[in-house]
Amino acid sequence: MKGIVLAGGTGSRLFPLTRAMSKQLLSVYNKPLVYYPLSVLMLSGIRDILVISTPSTVPLLRALLGDGSQLGIRLSYAVQDEPRGIADAFRIGADHVGDDDVALILGDNLFHGAGFARRLQECAAAPDGCTLFGYPVSDPERYGIGEVDGDGMLVSIEEKPLRPRANNAITGLYFYDNEVVDISRRITPSARGELEITDVNREYLKQGRARLIRLSRGNTWFDCGTHDSLLAAGQYVQVIEQRQGVRVACLEEIALRMGFIDADACYRLGEQMRQSDYGRYLTEIAYALD
After folding, report:
1. Do residues 224 and 33 make contact, with C-beta atoms less than 8 angstroms apart?
2. Residue 111: what pLDDT?
3. Mean local confidence (pLDDT), 274-281
4. Strands of 96-240, DSSP E
5. Where is the secretion signal located (predicted)?
6. What is the pLDDT of residue 192?
7. Tens digit of pLDDT for each residue in 30-64?
8. Residue 246 to residue 249: CA distance in whole angstroms
9. Is residue 134 a contact partner of residue 154, using CB atoms and an 8 Å limit?
10. How far apart are CA 228 and CA 224, in angstroms?
């Protein structure tokens, strides 16, 4: 399975913070925001990942993340020169996906929780149609909402419904079989000229091959696209890390745990940042986890 991080857009909801800086480079406690979606794909076992962003941001992300070899993965980059909708990622990334299945995650989404990595790996191992993730919200009229039957198969998808029939907000994480590339080519742009991911998901819904995994109470999801949610995500990560002594979305630790790199490589990466708490954490766990 291939992976795509869609890190484009103008970040206008975060103005003036994002007038001169990409949203994905903003801090969520002690890491750049882009670390969090990238960690999700790595936890899924995906090692070949395309990062899509704006012309001005791609060089910055490349400077931050490199080609991924230090993490035992492969990172490549592509430009989305203007916002054309989430599903545009599959047109841009068609060559990257090739004949494989694909997982797409939005560059401002943060997921964390017990058992989440296991669910990700199950989705990546046997994709069949479309798998979405739902998160229970108290204000479903603000989100795209998925209604499911008793087997978790999607019955309907509604965008910001006035009278919601469910409270499962569809998050920015999507697993698809390879047909998604052809579907994205067939859908018609919206009135705004964008390729809507909801249209892709509804095509799978028509085929009876769309399911939604409802994230349990032990899992957390943030869409870090507003000032309040960005702050709340940072505070959440701070509490988890300080109380539990672990790191959320620590890419080097994930690479070690997943067997992408060995303990020596993890230690060397920590040594490069040894003057920071982050670097010291890597040197401490390198052999403890080996």
Report:
1. yes
2. 97
3. 95
4. 102-106, 109-113, 130-136, 144-148, 154-159, 168-176, 210-214, 219-223
5. none
6. 83
7. 999 999 999 999 999 999 999 999 999 999 999 99
8. 10
9. no
10. 8
